[in-house]
Amino acid sequence: MGEPNEGGVTLRALQRTIEAMYGAKDAARGDAATFLWLTEEFGELATALRSGSQEELALEMADVLAWLATLANIRGIDLEDAVNRKYGLGCPGCGKSPCTCDPAEKP
Amino acid sequence: MGEPNEGGVTLRALQRTIEAMYGAKDAARGDAATFLWLTEEFGELATALRSGSQEELALEMADVLAWLATLANIRGIDLEDAVNRKYGLGCPGCGKSPCTCDPAEKP
Q1: Cα diameter, chain A
Q2: Distance CA A19, CA A66 (A)
């Protein structure tokens, strides 16, 4: 899934940015309290999806990403490695891209 | 936030990978039904955070990322642009990195 690029925001860069910005506060808060914040943002995402503008929706998605990066930082998870392991070789269910799983089933 | 890299997973690459893998199914399902799947994964993330192994936690984070990318694809949102707009110039609250906002306040 990786590719050479000139300036794209990698998952690793996102984690580093969030670490620099919030790392001390995040470590002090811990994972359970962080999950509360992530959940609050997730709720705001639902609102924006239901009735927000494109810009509001985009910014709520950015917030969910940022808080997910925060949680990954606190728990020592590398999001790029995780995504590569789960999705790097095709759909985790059928192994293909495009996926050929039954749409009713969870991939 | 962007930086030159050799093979990192950018948010744009993630969206493209998910689009190739699931785009047709995602478009057919639509945003509300997709949000149900995202929510299911979010619940699994809570479980993994509470009692899972590091590997389980990493894979659930990957799933949340994948379903968020799916939702962004369906709604025509570019996650990189969104993240750059919200967090590209420092904390959205105080403008700094490290952030100097009151920890009790939402950034």
Answers
A1: 44
A2: 10
List the alpha helices (DSSP H) in chain B: 11-29, 31-51, 54-75, 79-87
Residue in A83, A85, A101 to test binding to B, most B beta-carbons within 10 Å: A83
Tokens 């799916």, residue? B70
The 8-class DSSP code of residue B103 comes to T
The residue ranges of every structural domain in chain A are 11-76
Tokens standing for residue A85: 């392991």
In tens, the pLDDT along B17-66 reads 999 999 999 999 999 999 999 999 999 999 999 999 999 999 999 999 99
Q: Of B16, B9, B3, B69, give the one whose Cα is nearest residue A2.
A: B9
Q: Which residues of B touch A1 (CB under 8 A)?
A: 9, 13-14, 17
DSSP string, A7-18: S--BHHHHHHHH
ipTM score: 0.93
Looking at CATH, the fold of the domain delimited by B11-76 is given as: Helix Hairpins (1.10.287)
